[in-house]
Amino acid sequence: MNVFDSIPDGFFNCLASSANHRAYAGCLNAIYEQYNSAVSYRLPRADIRDSLTIYLLQNHIELNEDGTEDLSAGNDQANFIIRKFVTAGYIEEETDNTTFEKYIVMTDNGIALAEFLEKLSKPRRAEYSNYILNIYNRLKYQTNEQKKEPYSLLVRPAFEDAKALSSDLKKLSTSIKKIIETMLHEGTLVSLTENIIKYCDGDFIREYSRLVKQQNIHLYRNYITQELERLKGESFDLIVQNLMNEEKIDMDEAEERVSEMIDSTKTFLHDDYNKIMEDIKQKINTYIRIAIARERMLRNKGFDLKGCVEQAVRLLIQTDDTNNEDFQALFRIQKNEFIDTSSLYVPRKFSSLNQNTENEYYELSEEAKEKQAALLQKEADNPFSKDKVKDYFEKYPESTSLTLENKDNMLSTLAALTYAKENGWNITSYDEYIKSDDYKMRKWEATKK
Fold first, then answer.
1. Each residue of 53-109: pLDDT tens digit?
2. Would you give the DSSP letter of residue 398?
3. In which domain of life is the source organism classified (predicted)?
4. Helices (DSSP H) in 92-215: which residue ranges?
């Protein structure tokens, strides 16, 4: 049977296509809380209306839907929601034959939907060891009633507990996968450290550690398997008959279902459980390896950036071709990073293997020597070094006193601002900008320390 054969048309409309789906979900939860705490299955309609009114007012909710334009906040909107929930099949209205008072009754489908929404918003924490202990205790200490109804009180509960444990372990495996995916996007050492701390202090690692330490499944599964085999051999006919009476099915189908339940329970305890746990263990190892690799990558990225700005500034001075591919790789300043004085260090040059070669040489003339010395001195001279820009602010104490005429002026200003603190100056920046045709800079003022 299809699920839509047992629910009214439009059952999911309130939570799917409605503009007020968040409000409706909260109102359904408010009704369910009243139902869950009440002794009677019937709730006075006036109490439900008041609860919805309080919920709407406390959360400052105004319905935005056709038919709600003329409704005033409070009781009118609460009554509208009650009528909508009745139409959707979440609740039913009843009238007492004696007092003629109206009552609200939650339908089975409405209760199931409310419980489902609550599980999504507040997932329960599974106690994995309880599943195995429940199966073990149920088979170890059988009562006379359980022996008379072995299907409904022994075999089926054991199968359902094993299935629930399998489902929760798979969810645990999925959660570590999401943690790993988050780790791959950490861009700084700070966020990486926070991720690791969250992992160590989180629910996942506690749940896994508790499961591994107790090792309940390894202690009890042999006995559980033996007892299931005994039931299958000694009480198989009684189990099949119980199933036939309960489900109203024929003998062949009942025998097949009982055998499948027992076999699948045994298979999970001895095979599937080990595979799932091994998968979780591998993902934990993957997380640790990624954390180490990510830390090294982020740390090395900071080292690699040193010297890039220095080389970039030199090349900007020497060329007007900003599309030159030879120094494109120098601009490796990643987003979320920043430039500081350590970025201006001369880059490290790695040693390379040298081979002995023989070349012809000739002696330079005095004039050629002077030209070569001047060329080397010019290359070694850095107009943007800390010493060269030390007195920059004596000439330009504030941004309004300079003009951004060309690239050299702009680069000199940037270098002076970078070394200002080390050269004994305090810089105050403002929200306004100074502009030229090609450049734009925030206004600033320099004061001597």
1. 888 888 888 777 766 666 666 778 888 888 888 888 888 998 888 888 898 898 888
2. B
3. Bacteria
4. 108-121, 128-140, 144-148, 150, 156-183, 189-201, 203-214
Tokens of 88: 């959707």
β-pair partners for 144: none
Which of 124, 438, 420 is CA-nearest to residue 429?
420
Q: CA-CA distance, 284 to 287, in Å (whole number)?
A: 5
Give the pair of three-digit tokens for residue 146. 């359980």
Residue-wise pLDDT tens digits, 296-320: 777 766 555 555 656 666 666 676 6
Burial environment of residue 309 by CB neighbours within 10 A (0 to 12, 13 to 18, 19 or more) = buried
* Location of each CATH 1.10.10.10 domain in the chain: 3-121
Q: Phi, psi (5° rounding) for residue 115?
A: -65, -35
Q: List, in order, residues 6 or more apart from 302 with CB less than 8 Å away.
A: none
Q: Which residue has the tokens 């330079």?
A: 364
Q: What's the rounded Cα separation, in Å, for the pair 110 and 90?
A: 4
Q: How far apart are CA 264 and CA 232, in angstroms?
A: 13
Q: Which fold has domain 3-121?
A: Arc Repressor Mutant, subunit A (1.10.10)
The answer to whether 361 and 342 have CB atoms below 8 angstroms apart is no
**Rounded-to-integer distance, Cα 274 and Cα 217, Å:** 10
